[in-house]
Design brief:
The structure is a single chain. With 263 residues, this protein is an alpha+beta fold. The chain has a domain at 113-263: Porin (Beta Barrel). Helices cover 16% and strands 36% of the residues. The protein has helices at residues 35-39, 50-72, 87-95, 98-101, and strands at residues 116-126, 134-143, 146-150, 153-166, 171-179, 193-205, 216-227, 232-242, 253-262. Strands 1-2-4-5-6-7-8-9 form an eight-stranded antiparallel beta barrel.
């Protein structure tokens, strides 16, 4: 018999080694925290009522500026009408625009000029024409006019105190001086239209809105309004807000607002 060839040795199966440990999942990357948020006090971020609170505080300040002079004012005795005065003189004054600006008359017929001669509310767009556009609302008290001598001319200036706030929490309180052009040059359309340039200064708080460089900001612009009734005016105001380069940064901004004023 023929011998069978020797069988090949069977290799032993390798013993299974320890299972590799699963690699830990990468931790989610944390979103960067803005520098101003790290410095912001807790509880103020995202406050939905912060703009309303700022507006209330600024309006209270503006009202104090109005009420304080009113409390110090003294009642003046009625003036004696000049000789020759009468209804005809009153009509001439009204045609010249004086009666339109005066307040109520007492029993003696003497005009009583009120401290606050006109109120106004404003609503529109802050930083108009840029990517940072945001809504803006405000209010203004327009005070009794006074004459500013300028050579042979006397400018009838109208002080105004007011405040505004924006949708992202910025706020501004100001004292301005207004000049109604029809007080200097009468035109055929003066009875229905008025053009009022103004210039003022105030305190600005950026909140979560645009940083204008610092707290002191100057306000300049013009209002064009139409007489919508005996005591009402409806118009538009375009104004510029900036710090006149008294700080290192002066980005400035323009606002376009609709104004409704009454007496």
């Amino acid at each position: 018999m023929q011998a069978s060839p020797p069988s090949a040795p069977v290799a032993a199966a390798p013993s299974p080694g320890p299972a590799p440990a699963p690699s830990p999942a990468p931790a989610p990357a944390s979103s960067p925290v803005p520098a101003d948020a790290r410095c912001r006090p807790a509880g103020k971020a995202g406050s939905a009522w912060a703009p309303g609170r700022r507006l209330a505080l600024l309006l209270a300040l503006a009202w104090l500026l109005v009420a304080a002079p009113a409390g110090l004012a003294r009642e003046q005795p009625p003036a004696t009408p000049a000789a020759g005065g009468g209804p005809a003189e009153s009509r001439v004054s009204e045609q010249a625009g004086i009666g339109d600006e005066a307040g109520a008359r007492d029993e003696s017929g003497v005009a009583e000029a009120p401290l606050v001669r006109e109120w106004a509310v404003l609503a529109g767009i802050f930083d108009v024409g840029t990517r940072g556009e945001v809504g803006e609302v405000g209010a203004e008290a327009r005070l009794r006019k006074f004459g500013l001598p300028l050579g042979s001319l006397e400018l009838p200036l109208e002080p105004a105190v007011g405040a505004m706030t924006t949708g992202d929490g910025a706020a501004y309180a100001h004292l301005s001086f207004r000049l109604t052009l029809k007080d200097l040059w009468a035109t055929p359309w003066s009875d229905r239209w008025r053009v009022v340039p103004f210039l003022g200064v105030g305190v600005y708080e950026a909140g979560d809105g645009k940083d204008l460089g610092g707290p002191v900001e100057f306000r300049s612009g013009v209002e064009v309004s139409y007489r919508a009734g005996q005591r009402w005016w409806l118009g538009a105001t375009l104004y510029h807000l900036s710090n006149a380069v008294i700080y290192d940064s002066n980005p400035g901004e323009e606002s376009l607002v609709v104004t409704l004023s009454w007496r």
